[in-house]
Amino acid sequence: MDKILLEEELAQTYPNHATVSTQVKQQMLRYVGDLPQPGIGFAAAYAAQQAKQKKGQQLAERQVVEVDHPESKEAIYGDLALMNSAFKTERKFEEISALDKSRVGSTVWVRARVHANRGKGKSCFMVLRKGIATVQVAMFASETMPREMVKYASKISLESVVDVQADIQATPSPTNTTQSDIELIPKRVYVVSAATILPFKIEDAMAPEPTEEEVAAAKAAAAKAAEEAAKKKGKGKKGKGKAQADNNATITVGQKLVLDYRWLSVRTPAANAILRVQSAVGTYFRQFFLERGFAEIHTPKLTPGVSEGGADVFRLDYFGRDACLAQSPQLYKQMAIMADMQRVFEVGPVFRAENSNTHRHMTEFVGLDFEMEIYEHYHELLKTLSDLFIFIFKQINEKHAVSFVVLYCYCFCPVAVVVLLLLLLLAAAVNNTVISSDTF
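RESULT FIELD:
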């Protein structure tokens, strides 16, 4: 986006944009690369830039205390030196998801990322995250916990990887974490890998992209704030009004930024939980059929021609010969049945060159396919399908309920989480087609 287009967007965001100081305008243009979502306006870009500068100052202020060994008697906090597999310890790390009220009074080691960090005076509260599980860490300066340690912990940047040895303690009131009935009182805090300035905050990536109505409301609010600031007399009041307009801007992370930094955006609870549910569906699909005597097969994905009618294919050159990406393993499944394999299944990629008039094209997805011989009636197939769905739902409900709780809490449309899963599996049952895990 060039400067002319940026000026046009600024004019749309602030109809009376002449009231915006030249300095602020230049800063907005300079940091346009930080603009999270086109349409929200330059206020969001400017707020993001200000947050980045503040975080840079915090990192600069953090005093690095280097520690050579995590079991050092002298240093109970600091930045661990690069290990290089130079030593082994007797430490046993616990998963945050495994910590609960039954462990109160015990001492554990955890390695996790700093999800949130808030320090004030002689206290510091951190939230540690491992996968989709989170737990609160509470620190108060005392004889056993030096004030320098609390100050050090409060300066640890978000998304840094830390090792914490702590006592598990029950909380007087539930915390805003997955392990809400406990908190950790640390004895040792070590930074394993300090995070640098991130392109966006994980909490911002958790917010949904704004609707057209929300964009219009944000623009109207920014314009109103700018007009009110212009009416005020006095330089100080005017500047304060504009700063308030910038601070009130809603920051979201657009899809392009999400995909450019996918290793960061997948850290959000919803994205992480979706991948875990995908993995569970594939695992229980395999388990169901293996327990019933089905054989897993792996069919070619480069084929000389169309394997199924009614769908376009991606064509390519195969050493001077025409080839295409497999649109279905259907032909190979039927060949396996005719070869007396009796019952087969496959979990593999499917490619279909269908230029659908939708936001998401089903051009590449993971297919869950099976084929079986029928002795007398097609009800044998329907019985297998119904048993399959019941088995998958039961296993996920028993072993992955936390993932669905996370999806319900953090997904942009909680009801869609369950509805999409049900519609997907029911559609597969009715049509006897593949189940696309890409839709989850």
